[in-house]
Design brief:
CATH architecture: Orthogonal Bundle
CATH class: Mainly Alpha
Helix content: 55-70%
Number of strands: 0
CATH superfamily: Tetracycline Repressor, domain 2
Distance between the termini: 56 Å
Number of domains: 1
Length: 173
């Protein structure tokens, strides 16, 4: 039995896989502040992605061609709109958040990291690269969940600052 009797192209198959991976992403966060809604949506997307790490490349490639990827994007834009963001500001905020969520996922599952390459700091001369060696030691004590939440908090704090600043009269974006 040939798979291509049921599916016309490889792209169609890949999109179906991504749709399945993203099918369980909760899209309606409980009534909350916009930043809480964005945080929940980001955590939900990460949960779905980390449940299927082998799909990393497919998700990155097809996140906006799968129906469930588009639904998540719409929910994220809805939360950003609730923050009062429109136009370029909303676009920039959206791209920043998508870049962070997808980038953190890729870093966790596809990029070698000092946690996994503990031998790297041993090869470094601590007198020549003291901060890099220290950072690598610290990285081994940090979990990816904490790292993701910390980074998401930094992004959300920056967006909150931008939202507050945009409510004041100023020049063009």
């Amino acid at each position: 039995m040939s798979l291509y009797r049921y599916i016309e192209t490889r792209d169609q198959l890949e999109i179906m896989i991504v749709d399945l991976v993203l099918a369980k992403v909760a899209l309606k966060p409980p009534a909350a502040e916009w930043s809480d809604a964005v945080s929940i949506l980001a955590e939900e997307m990460r949960r779905a992605l980390t449940a299927h790490p082998a799909t990393a490349t497919l998700v990155v490639t097809h996140r906006f061609t799968s129906a469930n990827g588009l639904r998540w994007a719409e929910a994220l834009l809805t939360a950003l709109t609730a923050a009062g963001l429109t136009g370029k500001q909303r676009y920039f905020a959206f791209r920043t958040l998508v870049g962070y969520v997808v980038g953190a996922f890729q870093t966790e599952y596809t990029v070698p990291f000092p946690r996994e390459t503990a031998a790297l700091p041993a090869e470094l001369r601590a007198d020549e690269f003291p901060l890099l060696a220290e950072n690598a030691r610290d990285a081994r004590r940090v979990g990816f969940d904490d790292e993701f939440r910390y980074g998401l908090g930094v992004v959300l704090d920056g967006l909150a600052h931008s939202v507050r600043r945009s409510s004041k009269p100023r020049g063009r974006l």
